Hints:
By secondary structure, the protein is an alpha/beta fold. The chain is built from 7 helices and 7 strands; from the N terminus they run H-E-E-E-E-E-E-E-H-H-H-H-H-H.
Amino acid sequence: METTKAERIRLGIFMLLMSFLILGTVAFLVGKRMTEKYIPYKIRFTESVDGLNPGAKVKLNGIVVGQVTSLAVDPEDLTAVIVRFEVLAGTPVKTTMTANLIGGISLTGLKSIELSGGTPDDPYAKRGDFIQSSVSGLRQITGQVESIAEKFEGILNNLLALTDEHNQKRLASISVNLDKITARIDTVLEKNSKEINQIPKQTSKLLENTNTAVEELLAIEKNMALMVARLDSLAFRADKKIQGLEIEAMLKSANEAAKAMELLAKRSDQIVYRNQESLTLTVRYLREAVENLNDVSRQVRENPSLLIRSEEKQQRVR
């Protein structure tokens, strides 16, 4: 079917408009790209960056602010990867921010970079600075899985060690001993079933006796309280009677008697002091007299005839 001239004109106009639209879109995108300013930064990752490719998104708190430009192995540390990325000018990239890998769990396995942290008072990172990297969530999960796997492996090893031939024999002997012990316990329970059945009764009796003892103690406590009250009343009455006596007069008389005794003692000391020489002479004379008497008695014991001679002399003197 041949097209008419009018249809060909309309088709040409449509194609021309579509061409202008495509060119306008490309020009807009290119112009936007040329007018927008991007600031480059770098990150050093010490883990695998599998799934992170040039052009991957760079996000700040979930908002796309830039993209990855290149990836390269660090020539100074072959276990590290340097990732270069750029963000829009005006993006608040702080020196205290951290970058970590996110994603990689989806069907595509593609990853992106997430910037987080920092405060408004922190200084801004300079152009081309390294942003500190942090451990990704996937690596944390894999690390925990590895730790769990190690612990599970240890548990399995312990179970294998417990179930070896030697331990199986020991477990069998332990089970046999437990059976014997339970059999003995059953035998003891059967033999002492009467005594065991009497335990509740004895316990109830003991509780009754305890209650009785408690009641008696309460009664004793009441009696003690009454006795204390009576003693208090007696003490109060005695206090009143003592207050009624002439205690002050008695104390005054006792003080006067004490003063008189003190005065007597002082006078006795004075008399002894004054007659000290006379007493000394008297004691000396008495001592000499005693010595003379001792001498006379000794002579008489040695020579009793002295008494006869002394009598004759006295008769002659008469």
